[in-house]
Structure to design on (285 residues):
């Protein structure tokens, strides 16, 4: 299998490269090497590589900035997805696209199924939903949430930094979802792609948490691993106490049962995956 990976320098792109199957030949493109908003460039690059699968790990993920830069977000999260899907289709390649829990409004009280009605609250979710439609029915679309990795900008690394620098941290307690380790997500994407899966799937780690719960666990694991040398108070706050330009869903747990059935096993609990990520940071010194 030959795979083209777009967005290769991001935390998911790096994880896809790290977890690629032994028999997969990968060709990766960072943002500087391939402008996915340039349709002609995308078509030419994919035609030159002639891959069996195209994996899109690129996205505009600045949720709050997207509120004032929706056109830019739409170019990357919407139109560019269509370019990649068309390029993959022109080479009879399988297109794999990653989407988000933000396509839902968060008013549910039960996990969102893959076929649940979508209703994004803000620009980021709206542009990602456009991308889902642009990917087309033959694509594999995997929605995920709260992704983190040992490198890159993410909640875990931000919390570790703040816990070192500040006397206390304040974290939202009334937004509920599921953390997702990028390495495990990448492994799931490879497996589903290898199976030739099509349509919409949901993948996160197992379990649920609030951002506050997640922060408490980060501090506990960080102290055990020696990444933190002191405990600081973690203060639970409400979303209303931390206003942001973008509205976020209060409940965005994804129903992952059909995905776990396809994979043959459920994902480990998010706390287990967090410990693995903390261990990876510790090993890197």
């Amino acid at each position: 299998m030959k795979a083209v990976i777009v967005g290769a320098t991001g935390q998911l792109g790096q994880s896809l490269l790290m977890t690629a199957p032994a028999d997969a030949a990968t060709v990766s493109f960072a943002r500087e090497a391939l402008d996915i908003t340039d349709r002609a460039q995308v078509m030419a690059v994919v035609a030159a590589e002639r891959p069996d699968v195209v994996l899109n790990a690129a996205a505009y993920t600045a949720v709050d900035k997207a509120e004032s830069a929706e056109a830019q977000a739409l170019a990357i999260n919407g139109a560019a997805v269509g370019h990649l899907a068309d390029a993959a289709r022109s080479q009879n390649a399988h297109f794999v696209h990653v989407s988000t829990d933000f396509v839902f409004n968060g008013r549910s009280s039960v996990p969102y199924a893959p076929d649940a009605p979508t209703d994004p609250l803000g620009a980021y979710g709206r542009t990602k939903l456009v991308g889902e439609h642009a990917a087309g029915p033959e694509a594999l679309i995997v929605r995920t949430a709260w992704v983190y990795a040992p490198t890159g900008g993410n909640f875990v690394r931000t919390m570790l930094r703040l816990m070192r620098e500040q006397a206390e941290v304040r974290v939202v307690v009334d937004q509920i979802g599921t953390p997702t380790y990028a390495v495990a997500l990448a492994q799931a994407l490879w497996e589903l792609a290898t199976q030739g899966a099509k349509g919409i799937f949901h993948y996160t780690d197992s379990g649920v948490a609030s951002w506050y719960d997640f922060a408490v666990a980060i501090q506990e694991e960080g102290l055990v691993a020696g990444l933190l040398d002191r405990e600081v108070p973690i203060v639970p706050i409400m979303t209303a106490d931390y206003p942001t330009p973008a509205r976020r869903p209060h409940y965005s747990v994804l129903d992952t049962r059909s995905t776990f059935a396809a994979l043959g096993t459920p994902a480990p609990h998010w706390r287990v995956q967090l410990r693995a990520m903390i261990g990876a940071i510790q090993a890197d010194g």
Q: What stands out?
A: Residues 64 and 245 are 5 Å apart (CA to CA). The two ends are 34 Å apart (CA to CA).
